[in-house]
Amino acid sequence: MTEKPRYASWTHGKLPLTELAELKRRDQKITMVTAYDFPSGRIADAAGVELVLVGDSAAMTVLGHDSTVPATMEELLILTRAVTRGAKRPLVIADMPFGSFQVSDEAAVENAVRFVKEAGADAVKLEGGGPTLSRVQAIVGAGIPVMGHVGLTPQSATMLGGFKAQGRTAEKAERLYEDALALEAAGCFAVVLEAVPAPVAARVTAELEIPTIGIGAGGGCDGQVLVWHDLLGLYEGRSPRFVKQYADLASEIERALGRYVDAVRSGAFPEEQHTYAMPDEERVQFETRLPGLAERAGQHQ
Ligand code: KIV
């Protein structure tokens, strides 16, 4: 049997947004990863992921805060701009930070427009159902694709009682299910399900036409997302149970830096090939142009 092509129309250039729903229809999993700078955007592109999220998780992974709440528009604009320079083929989604969409539909549209115009984002992501719906409609109405995010929404972790799995009772699962359906109706092109029991996520996925992207939501989602630093072993804080680490780059980097420190201290680095030479006659002239060099150096001591 010949394998179906993974994409109908992604031969070169940007992945068309419509291709995502097509992947869902064909039951082909979608991959998403966070990225926060030019090299991570470029590597994610080279690895073939479909979606790159410039997550407000940057507040923790890159900026060293304890939560995602302090992330600002200006910080995320700078990071998104760097990622879009590196990630050419995947769709780049900018995460709208806390405070950038909660106040009004107008402010939400204004900030979403900044991500597209100033940072080259293809889409934005907003956390929450309920009150977020009118923001989604307003942003989609302005022509900007929106990804929803329900379940554990870290920006409202305090209201949710901490970083805990959501939808674990029938009543709460029903509310989450309704929120996901409402986000689709409001115009989202996909929805992230974070820290949601697998049966609930699978049921939501079966019901929606748009793809679900899971993180701690089981294998029944249409795609998966992981945070760059968690996936690669670069985040040294406590990781949630749903994280799978595919490399231990923090140890690898520490070992490399240790070798560098030793080499500098011992004089083994730099070697001949790392230095620039100059013609002998220029060097001699240079020294003759500096009469009294030794004396002047002595005066400065
Ligand atoms: O900010 C982020 O990285 C996210 C993902 C965990 C989905 O929202």
Features:
42% helix, 301 residues, TIM Barrel, alpha/beta, binds 3-methyl-2-oxobutanoic acid, single chain, elongated
Helix segment tally: 12
Instruction: Tell me which ligands are bound.
Output: 3-methyl-2-oxobutanoic acid
The CATH architecture term of the largest domain is Alpha-Beta Barrel
- Identify the overall geometry: elongated
Number of strands: 8
CATH topology of the largest domain: TIM Barrel
Oligomer: single chain
Number of domains: 2
Question: What can you see in these coordinates?
Answer:
This protein has 12 helices and 8 strands. The chain has 301 residues and is an alpha/beta fold. The chain folds into 2 domains: 18-248, Alpha-Beta Barrel (TIM Barrel), CATH 3.20.20; 253-299, no CATH class. Strands 1-2-3-4-5-6-7-8 form an 8-stranded parallel β-barrel, surrounded by 7 helices. α2 (38-47) packs across α4 and α7 (170-186) packs parallel to α8. The structure holds 3-methyl-2-oxobutanoic acid.
Quick synopsis:
This protein is α/β, with parallel strands linked by helices and 301 residues long. It has helices spanning 18-25, 38-47, 58-61, 73-86, 105-119, 133-141, 170-186, 198-207, 228-231, 249-266, 280-288, 293-299, and strands spanning 30-34, 51-54, 91-95, 123-125, 146-151, 190-194, 212-215, 223-226. The protein has 2 domains: 18-248, Phosphoenolpyruvate-binding domains (TIM Barrel, Alpha-Beta Barrel), CATH 3.20.20; 253-299, no CATH class.
